Amino acid sequence: MTDTRSGRERRVQAGGVRLAYRTWGLPARTPPVVLLHALGEGSTDWARVAEALAPAWPVYAPDLRGHGASDWPGAYTIEQLTTDLEAFLDALGLDRVTLVGHSMGGPPAYLYSARHPERIARLVLEEPAPPWPRERRVLTRPDGPLPFDWDATALSNEFTDPPASAWRDSLRQVLSPALLIAGGPASHVDQGQLADMAALIPDCELVTIPAGHLVHAARPAEFTALLTGFLAA
User: Fold this and answer.
1) What are the backbone angles phi and psi of residue 84, rounded to the nearest 5°?
2) Is the pTM of this model over 0.90?
3) What does the alpha-carbon distance between residue 117 and residue 119 come to, in Å, rounded to a whole number?
4) Ranges 3-12, 14-23, 167-176: which has the least confidence
5) Angle at CA 108, nearest 5°, toward 13 and 32?
6) Max Cα–Cα distance, the chain, nearest Å
7) Which of 47, 109, 137, 217 could form a disulfide with 99 if both were Cys (CB 3.0 to 4.6 A apart)?
8) Whole-number Å distance between alpha carbons of 44 and 171
């Protein structure tokens, strides 16, 4: 266990993988907030958001499988990330939470929310990967060591032909209040599809912060103000 400015680092066995995670704040009566990062990023990516939330909510941010200090098993699918999330929450005894998922972290967040509505207080999706087919992407591995397993980029191409109807049906089954944060025209994500996602969720507010795909990093003050207002409502 390590104390850093980026939160307290711990590890937990979550099903078939060992996940590293960081925590901020103290246990409280409010539902904790669990932050799920994007492809190629990690728990420390959430540090500024977590520090802003920590005075009012306990915060947990795992390194998803294949990222950071978590296990790199070499097999990566959205369903595995969703299963890992369930095992992570069970291992820590987090019975009811708010889930926040950015980009690749969005689908596990909404799939879990649909399957376990009784365990979700609120759902926040920041520029989530939309469940509609898209062109296959060819990614070039940069030189040098990486903070994640390059094989995890296979997750990106799950969206070239996703189980679209099943994943869209899951959005309709999200019962908690939800917030979808879009990044506007500077984002590479289809903003019309994000609006369609929000329309499928029964109780969802769509808000655009014109900052591109990395809203919480590019506009942290606006993002955290919107997030804290939604959580406190």
Assistant:
1) -60, -40
2) yes
3) 5
4) 3-12
5) 65
6) 46
7) 109
8) 28
